[in-house]
Amino acid sequence: MRVLVVEDEPDLLASLLKAVREDGYAADGAADGEEGLFKAESSEYDAILLDVMLPRMNGWDVLRKLRASRKTPVLMLTARDAIQDRVRGLDTGADDYLVKPFDLDELLARLRALIRRAASQGQPAIEIGPLIIDTVARTVSLRGNPVILTAREYALLEFLALHRGKVVTRTMLYEHLFDENDSTLSNLLDVHVSNIRKKLGHDFITTRRGHGYCIETGK
Amino acid sequence: MMIHSIRWRLQAWHGFILVLVLAGFGFAAYQASRDNQFRRVDQELEREWVFAFRPGPPGRPPSGPERDMSRGSEPGEPSEFRLNRRLAMDPEAGAMDERNPFYYILWQADGTVTARSQGAPADIPPRPQRDGLGGRPLQRPAQPNIDGLPPTRRMPREIRTRGEFRELWRFTPQGGCALVGRSMASELAALRRLALELCSAGTAILVLGLAGGWWLATRAIRPIDDISDTAMKIAAGDLSQRISAADTESELGRLVHVLNSTFNRLEAAFAQQARFVSDASHELRTPVTVILSQTQTTLARERPGAEYREALEACQRAAQRMRKLTESLLELARLDRGLQPPNCKKIDLAQIAKECADLLRPLAAEKRVQIEWDAPSLPCSGDAERLGQVVTNLLTNAIQFNSTGGEVRITGAASEGLVCLTVADTGIGIASEDIPHIFERFYRGDKSRSGTQGHTGLGLAISKSIVEAHGGRLEVTSQPGAGATFTIKLPLET
After folding, report:
1. What is the pLDDT of residue B70?
2. Disulfide-capable partner of A7 in A13, A19, A216, B289 (CB 3.0 to 4.6 Å)?
């Protein structure tokens, strides 16, 4: 999962990026509205954390312009907590609203909920045959036995599970699992996929040659 | 509570005065009418008496009185009365019918009744005693106004009311006595009717007057009720309420005007206060968010020491920002309370500006901004430290919002009792829609202009407050794209 954080206060941006990355997301930052809009339109993000008071272009304008082309889930962050501000935020197309100062745990929980909702996955736990993926604890168990995965492996598995039944292209995986600072070495994905197959069973993830990867729904 | 209301008190006084006036008027009218009636009756009695009685003995020669007469009576003064012969021979006379309501009684000096009309009351009125007639002397001195009167009418006369009868009699010096009486029944009935009419008319007027008074009082008090109703709503927290005044020229209209303008100022003050608190909490939220998210992220797991250091430095920056903000807020609160600058001295504003400019040269050099200086001596009175704060704030803005390689021009002038210090920059200027708000607390126009970190959004508000506390003005003009010009105007100190 890849997240964009748009926030003009550098210390806050840094700590938000750190927190989001440590929670297993790929994350990019933008320090003003124009940069935020540019990044949001040019990459596939799974969610955007958007501050309202931004230099160059405020959060409302970013949101309005973004909604013309994208329906990426947006979580607005603002120090204004008047009812009309919240209503305005939600009416402009924000998916959620969080008032500063917020608790980091709540921010991450809302972020998870947003991504889940965007993938039409109501339950926080994904069950695929004997495999259960707990998206809150970020753990995987096979027939009741916990399976240890690295953060990247987990992210890859979760993304494929959320899109199960569909073919996920390598480009999509690069877009959603790696941030702009990661080098996109072409065999990195293959290494992760082969590691997951070793842990969960060889035919769990099928390879569609020339297209990408897929988790079949029947499994 | 009801009894003490203005309306009830007005009504009570109104009723009291009305009752007094009506009672006085009614009493006077009744008395006048009564006097009038009695005077008329008395005149009739007099006429009747003169008609009914003639001087002279009633037939037989009197014995005693002749001696008395010869002794001292005026010539022609009769010693006895006699009944008019026409009356004496008329059997109808004194019957007290409608044509003739009078009755007569004639006493001789010895007390015997010599004549008595038919209609005279059954109980013969006691013969009045001569001595009982106010002790008037029988031998009265001649009075000019009675000289022309016939002799009989010069005799002492008395009128009395006995029951419903009015009686007039005269005495001869010898003790003879003649009486004409009349029933006053019809007059008394008329007077009673008049009294009744006066009473009912008075009551009706009183009721009408009280009703009218109540109406007037209600009308006069209604605006007061309106005022108190609205004031109550305002007291209950609805500050947007205003008293409607139809007539602004009346006394109440002026009161309403004063109250409304007070409410206006109150509402504005409350709104400003609410906005200020909201803005202040908004400004405090960002650093608090930084501290919270930094600490929560950092404490989520074990980290190398350098990361803790980084997080602590971020927290320190946030805390310093909060300190600066709270200091600014406290300073504004002090200025709002209208405290005089504590350290007022004769100072030279140009000298202060020069010192500030020298201190800011490194910052200007960083942005490659040139500071131009051209100001004569600007003597004024004030707190050097506070005014220095204002100049520093203006210069810092002028440097930070300047274009790279631009210039800041400080000029001064003293004229017409004012000293003016002008700080002009060559930056992007201020958008015209932002100009009216530029001195408002926490106002931020385009974020790109105030993009510099560490700004509280209070600098210009504080500067304005300081200059105004010195009795001066802080003004701004700007052409977008051609820089902004701030001018401090202070009273000239000679």
Report:
1. 36
2. A13
pLDDT along chain A (219 residues), means of 10: 89 90 88 90 89 84 89 86 78 86 90 84 77 82 84 84 82 79 70 82 78 74
Q: Within a 13 Å sphere around the CA of A141, how many CA atoms are in the beta-carbon half?
A: 8
Q: What is the CATH number of the domain that holds A70?
A: 3.40.50.2300
Same-domain check for residues A84 and A148: no
The ranges assigned to domains in chain B are 6-190, 251-336, 345-491
pLDDT digits (tens, 9 = 90+) for B282-338: 788 888 998 999 998 888 888 888 989 988 998 998 898 888 888 888 888 877 776
Closest approach of A49 to chain B, Cα-based (Å): 14
Q: Which residues of chain B have pLDDT under 50?
A: 60-75, 132-144, 447-453
Tokens at B49, concatenated: 């008496």
Architecture of domain B251-336 in this structure: Orthogonal Bundle (1.10)
Contact B390, B488 (CB under 8 A): yes
CA–CA distance, B178 with B200 (Å, rounded to integer): 43
Distance from CA of B317 to the nearest CA of A (A): 9
Shortest CA distance from B452: residue in chain A: A55
Of A10, A12, A54, the CB nearest to B293: A12
Question: Cβ separation of A80 and B290 shorter than 8 Å?
Answer: no
- Domain contains A219: no
DSSP per residue, B354-391:
HHHHHHTHHHHHHTT-EEEEE----EEEE-HHHHHHHH
| pTM reported for the whole predicted model | 0.56
Report domain B345-491's class: alpha beta
Containing structural domain, residue A198: 125-214
Q: How far is A139 from chain B (nearest CA, A)?
A: 18
Q: What is the ipTM of this complex?
A: 0.73
